[in-house]
Amino acid sequence: MKTPAVELRGVWKNFGNTEIIRGIDLAIEKDTIHAMIGPNGAGKSTIYNLITGRYHVDRGQILLNGEEITNQTPHEINRKGISRSFQVTNIFHRMSVFENIRCGMLWHRNYKYSFWNFLGRQGELNRRTEEIMVRTGLASRRDVLAGMLSYSDQRALEIAITLASGADVIMLDEPTSGMSHGETEQTVELIRKVARDKTLVIVEHDMGVVFDLAHTISVLVYGEIIACDVPQRIRGDRAVQEAYLGTEVA
Ligand SMILES: Nc1ncnc2c1ncn2[C@@H]1O[C@H](COP(=O)(O)OP(=O)(O)OP(=O)(O)O)[C@@H](O)[C@H]1O
Ligand SMILES: [Mg+2]
Predict the structure, then answer these.
(1) Which range is least confidently modeled, 86-95, 159-168, 173-182, 185-194?
(2) What residues are in contact with ligand 1 under a 6 Å CB criterion?
(3) Is 145 in contact with 177 (CB distance < 8 Å)?
(4) Once rounded to an integer, what is the mean pLDDT over residues 154-166?
(5) pTM for this structure?
(6) pLDDT over 80 (residue 210)
(7) What pLDDT is recorded for position 37?
(8) Which of 42, 141, 240, 248: disulfide with 38, CB 3.0–4.6 Å?
(9) DSSP string over 46-107
(10) Measuring from atom 2 of ligand 1, which residue has the nearest CA?
(11) Range of the domain at 224
């Protein structure tokens, strides 16, 4: 088997005495879209926080392209190639779209510590920022303050900022939450476009989005993966239907 982009081996996480993540094994193949689904409180965001280094792993290992990254700092993990968006929007409202994206790029490359380096590379940074704006459909909003954007454009900007880091693995937490049907469709198209040369992990409650986008799906219930497979087989999995999906996807 090819080396997975992201791999979890026997990962455990407790909060106090409560086992929240209970021995997760998961391998996500490079350049695919993997969706993680499960009821509220199942531990999806916690897994994101473990993979990205925001929470400490109690037991087990996390690997990126076969290299162990368990319990490294969020900054180290980000620089090695994992970038995430947050369930709550995470943008600077009083900066323009252009500035937000460029800021994401600078932060990732640590230019804040290297002023001369920054000056020398400004042209390249601006070019990449423009590229990302085009890719995420934000070019026409270039100079608009992020706080003035529509909700779905703000979410697109969030995705743009995760791209700005140059990471190969992009993790999105509920990218279509709170969106109208039309906005959701737009966002699905955006994700598909963005995913072309990336590994994408999405947590999403909208089953239409999940089954439309994902190459593989894992189902998390009370901190355990009860099924991990291609959408077609997840749809037909009785345990999944009983535990979570009900008649929603039937
Ligand atoms: N920092 C924390 N301290 C204590 N408990 C936490 C912490 N973070 C998460 N939990 C608990 O861990 C469990 C899993 O939470 P998590 O946010 O990962 O769920 P989720 O699957 O993302 O849910 P949702 O679909 O509602 O976003 C919940 O019971 C939550 O209360
Ligand atoms: Mg969550």
Answers:
(1) 86-95
(2) 15, 20, 38, 40-46
(3) no
(4) 91
(5) 0.90
(6) yes
(7) 95
(8) 42
(9) HHHHHHTTSS--SEEEEEETTEE-TT--HHHHHHHTEEE--SS----TTSBHHHHHHHHHHH
(10) 15
(11) 1-81+198-250
Ligand 2 centre distance from Cα of residue 242 (Å) = 21
Which ligand is closest in space to the CA of residue 19? 1
Pocket probe mutation, ligand 1, options 11, 14, 44, max atoms within 8 Å of Cβ: 44
How many domains would you assign to the chain? 1
Residue nearest (by alpha carbon) to ligand 1 atom 16: 43
The answer, yes or no, to whether residue 48 has pLDDT greater than 50, is yes
CATH number at 51 reads 3.40.50.300
- Residue 137 located in a structural domain: no
In a domain, 215, yes or no: yes
Minimum CA distance residue for ligand 1 atom 13 = 41
Contact 173, 84 (CB under 8 A): yes
Is residue 124 a part of any domain in this protein? no
Which amino acid residue places its CA nearest to atom 18 of ligand 1? 43
Tell me: pLDDT of 247 over 60: no
Distance CA 81, CA 26 (A): 18
pLDDT at position 243, please? 75
Residue 4 lies in a domain: yes
